[in-house]
UniProtKB/TrEMBL annotation:
InterPro entries: TLDc_dom (IPR006571). Residues 321-557 form the TLDc domain. Pfam families: TLD. This is TLDc domain-containing protein.
Amino acid sequence: MGQTPSTNRANDPNGGLSITLTKADVYNLFYTRCLQVLKPSELAFVRFVIDENDKTTISKADLKTKLSFGKGISLELWNELMDDVLFLMMKGLGKFPFLMDDKEASEYLTIQEFVIAFVFMSGRYNKVLSQDFDFLKLWFASLSESRIKQVVDDKGDVALEVPLLLPFEESDEISLRAKKVDWKNAPFCSLKDIDSDSLQLDAKSFVETNTMLLIASSTQLQKRGSMGAQFISRLKQWNEFEVYATSILRFIDVNLSASKLNEESILFDQFSKGVLDLLPNFYQNSLQRLSTELFTSSTLVNDEAHSSELLQKGIQFKPTKLVSVATLAYISSVLKGIGSDLQVTTENAVKLYAGSESGFSIRSLETKIFKWQAPTFLIVSGKRIKQKTMETNRRYQNFDEAYPRYFLKQENHLRPWQNDNDRITYCVVIKEPWQSSNKKNFGDTSTVILSMTPRADCYKSIHSDVTKGKSIYFNNQGMGLGFGNLQPLNKNGHQRYYPGDVSLTIEANLEFAVFRHLVQSKNNATNFFKPSTQVQLANENFEDRFTITDLEVWGIGSMKELDEQRKQWEWEEKQANARQSVNVRSMGEERAFLEMAGLVGNHGSYNR
């Protein structure tokens, strides 16, 4: 393989073993090590992808066919994803550990590139490289424009000092030598030779990739073969997932415009800071789901009829105006990213209240949600309040008068990144059961406010021995709902809200709402939530005032909780029917006595 038979201790600062190898030798050893950490099912998948007539390369066309999740399923969108995202990503990942040695664009993956890329996507690299390996940097670099444009002029014969765990012997097979290399401490595996400042990714590719990964994350673990069918069905909901992928983009850089994706790009420094704050493991988890669960299952899906049958069986969740599979995938990804133990899926989410169906009434809301004894999430959406509404709508003016103003009336309170036509959506995830709280708040420190659109963000509860996370009120006496507020005042015709510096307030008619974020105020408000997780906004004052168009509350429960709740509802319904039956019977007996007294009946004066 080009290495010298003797090992060298002098050049290793730690006094360990090392050997001089060419880049080509190192690459082949790493490829061999990658093969060794794959599971049998994953090796079977690799064999499935390899062309029997050409076992050295895989064409882009063949890869599309092999990863089509079943014979007969053909989606133009999936083909575009393969061209613009997956193939490019795998080509980049497959160059490791020499990412910058890319010479030119190619329509083929070598078998080495495919295997190495699969090991990184599946998370198996953890068995080879150090625990602090920067996967996000590798992933970003694999898609980065700068990596593609950079050319390194060498033929793979550059000499490298390679650390070893055990010395090489002349009789060693390559499989044994691959295990003897100390990959965890190899300098060329640290990515330090890649200049982070030069890495940038166009916004369009970022949104496409995030959309695909959100779809992958939404696909539930289930019988192999079923997952591919579900993935395909959710690809058809691309636009819904793309909304949240764009919100994630604007978390990375709030000033980016969703309408100018082709003209925008993000830097690695922006990406790494943003992702670590909101979605630290999203990319690893979603790529792992895509590769180990979805790709390997494609070997088992052999006909369109089977896929169609699985799709029909999987249709259980009924989306609403506000909540779709994409919504649940986004909420669940953020909750997982911030360390919450709650997971929201199509299997454990139950619609309790939808304003568009039950009416926008605080009483209707109370009736629908107060019986649910498990966690919930409230989601509210609307359009930013127009100047005309401010000037002419008396109901808004009454709300505005009761809500203490921070920005002056004549002041333009919109920030450069806020637009008049924004659709604003917030979500509040609540663990404690709802309760009427006209005098004191309820809740705990697990309550979190999520910004859904037009940008992603997260506002976590403050852990305080004083407030104890009691950040929520449900006031059915004319003051609505508050998250992050003190109890409102409603006395002798005088109404007054006491919003926290980070808070969401919904007025009693469920018509208007205000999200407030103040970090430079001097009002000494009691605060329940931390400022924005987004670096650009963490120290900025802003408000989102909007007219509510939709408001929904959904329950979150395990199958056990759902079953118990269903039994409780059935019991309450039986009791209500029984009471109604008793009332009817007793009413008949009373009527008989009234008829005897001549008070009702054909001749009674009270006859109707």
